[in-house]
Amino acid sequence: xxxxxxxxxxxxxxxSKKRISIIIEVAYxxxxxxxxxxxxxxxxxxxxxxxxxxxxxxxxxxxxxGEMYGNIELVVITGDETxxxxxxxxxxxxxxxxxxxxQITDVSVMRSKFFN
Length: 116
Hints:
Blueprint: E1 15-25, H1 29-38, E2 45-50, E3 52-54, E4 57-59, H2 66-69, E5 71-78, H3 80-94, E6 100-109
C-alpha cells in the first residue's frame, strides 16, 4: 500500500521590526543591558570580543586586555516604539562622550511575539 501525503503550504507571516546593534566597551555591558530592558525590549543578544579598527584606533585582538577593555556588541530586535525609546537613551549616553557605534536596520521576523 502506498500513502501519498499532500504537502501543505505554510504561509510565512513576516513582521517588520528594528534591529539595533550597539558596539561598546565591555565595561558598559550592565548599563547598556539596563537601557535595553528598561525601555521595554523583551531581550537582547551579546557578542563578546568584537574586534575592529576605526576612529579610536585598533580594538580587540590578541595581546590586549580584552576581557576588561575590549568591545562587545549588543543586538536587540524590537518594534518602532521601543526602538525610539532605546535610541533616545543612547543619544543621552553618547553626549557623555562615551565611544560607541550604533546601527539601526529594518528587519523582518517570523515570530513577532518574541520581539517587543
